[in-house]
Amino acid sequence: MKISIAIPDSSLSEEPTPLDKAMKISQIARACSIFHVNTIYIYKESGGSDRDRSLLRNLLRYLETPQYLRKILYPISDDFQFAGSLSPLKIPSHVQTSDPKKIKAGDVRDGVVVQYKGKKFVNVGFEQLIPFYSKDDDGKRILVKFKEGYPALTVKQIEKEEISQYWGYDVKEISNLNTFLATWGSVIILTSRRGKPIHKTQKYFDEISREQVLLVFGSPKKGVYEILGKSIGNIPRSQVLNFFSDQATETVRLEEAILGTLAVLNTLTRN
Given this model, what pLDDT does residue 63 score? Predict the structure, then answer.
């Protein structure tokens, strides 16, 4: 199963300080990395703000980026003032050697396209740049696989789908949730305390265990019913499900709901 989630740009609306907002984003990123979320979609909601949307987008991307590329990809900004206080993600793309002598043929690394003296290179976090032939623009983050290890260090560009292990999530923004859901084309689970209890739906989870699933979360102040309105009954291939007890959902925070939902879904669909 490939899992993606959709969260509103109002996700941070009840956090009183920039540090609280950053910590919440860190917890969301951690939950998504633990349970191998493919893409985090940020959708516009009436309670959201441009400032919070920017912070949510930038910090989620920053946390997913390997440490050796962060200074290259992210200029100094108020969005990252508390980045040093946030827990790192324990995913394979972050556990990389800084010693080029340990690189072997077949190893995969994230890199950034750079230009030096009129020639293209890729910066993969070593002191030396790796020659790279591509039409990609300078500053673009890419994935490379080493065709030869040290000392040759020749690479080819690959796509994330070519990697057998989980490599991290993508972050994308969507302007209209209703339109996005209408065109998703696969399974959609709308999370709500007004939904069907999951203990009554085991057969459903067996059926979707190999599907691309989108989990949609509401905001701190509005559930998916309030956000989607009457269109909630017309979303193709969708189910409204309650992953928590009625009592628990009254107090569950968004980051806790994401972690708990992903954990339950992982258990229910495990082969």
Answer: 97
Residue 102 DSSP code? G
Give which of 15, 23, 14, 168 is closest to 85, Cα–Cα: 23
Question: Can you give the C-alpha Rg of the chain in angstroms?
Answer: 20
E strand segments, 155-206: 155-158, 170-174, 187-197
24 to each of 81, 97, 254, how far by Cα in Å?
A: 14, 29, 9
- Pair type for strands 187-197 and 238-242: parallel
Q: Do the strands 119-123 and 212-216 form a parallel or antiparallel pair, or are they unpaired? A: unpaired
CA distance 6 to 179: 13
The sign of the dihedral angle between the CA atoms of 10, 16, 17, 23 is: negative
Amino acid at 148: E
Query: Is-above-0.90 flag for pTM?
Result: yes
- Structure confidence by residue, pLDDT tens digits, 211-227: 999 999 999 899 999 99
In terms of Cα–Cα distance, which of 187, 190, 191, 239 is closest to 211?
A: 187
Percentage of the chain with pLDDT > 70? 97
* β-pair partners for 141: 112
> What's the CA angle centered on 83, arms 78 and 89, to 5 degrees?
145
